[in-house]
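If your schedule permits, I should be very grateful for your opinion on a structural question. I have a record of one protein: its chain in single-letter code and its fold written as discrete structure tokens. Would you kindly read the sequence against the tokens and tell me how you understand this chain to fold? Thank you for your consideration; the sequence and its tokens are set out here.


***
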Amino acid sequence: MPGNAGREPYGKFLKRQKLPKATLNPGGGYRYGVGIRPASDETLRARRREPDGFYHWRDFRVGEDVVVFGLVLTLRDCDEHTKAWYSSECGLTDDDFPSMPPPAGPPPIPPRVVPPNVSGIGSEADSLNSVYRLVPKVPKKDVSFDEWLINQGQVMRFTGKLVDGPGKPPVPENEKARTFVVSFFLEDNTLAVFEPPVPNSGYPGGKYLERRPARKASGSNAYLRARDCRVGAVLEIKGTWMRLNAADDATLAIMEARPKEFPLSDARAVVTALTQAMARAGSPAAKELSRLCAVEDAKLGGGGAMVLNRAAFLNVMCELCAHAPGLGEFVDAQRLITLWRGLPKVSFDSTQT
């Protein structure tokens, strides 16, 4: 029996007994005794002496109604044993037992619609808990103990900027200069955004988004995870689009230590893919790479040593991927950072000749 049906889940609807036949009142309804009360013992004893005072097995037919103390029950079908017994005793055939379609069930229960958290106070689970309970309890975190223990204290930090995106109004020019620090906490998959205060900027700074689980998009049931955060990714935060522009060394080290979760931070895979792409592009791509490196080396005054700093390396890769066929996929911030960190580094004193 479904919950809140308005009926008690009794094991028996009617115990084994003789069922008295009901008498239809002129004004409607059925009469068993005096008034609206059930029949008394004297009335039942008197009806036992009457041959037609109670239901007999001859009175039951598929499709007919049986009144059980005011409740009308319709006989819709019977089992094969009952059919065989009626056939042997009364000579009935299968045509006398036309099965009726099952009654229409209860109306479907509409899905419970979760109201949106528009107050901006607390997390969605905390606000929803106050809807379901008069005395709210602390919501349980959807993180296993092993995952929390492994990732305890690990935080991924990025810098972010507001950008234009689909379904949102354009970002005003004065807000494009705002800089944010986006922190993703691996121990419980929560996100926090902080805006460093800038004097005379018109914005007070401080907490832009309090630490909480963040959805991937408005109306989505999926939440942000660590694999969704990388340099160059665009996230929807508080109804605005925010691009992650850079990450600190600790964040890059975390991503490089988990190549399966962050494939764009796998230095070996990125170098192998670039080598194969250069081989497919052929000698024109190799000559273009040498030319671009020579141009940047001349800007740095290297004298043909082909030693590039980070800015020169990014210029070379962006120009190469823009002109060489088959290298467009490498115009990705996270791939370029992984490639730069995976290359050998040398240090020299530019004042010495």
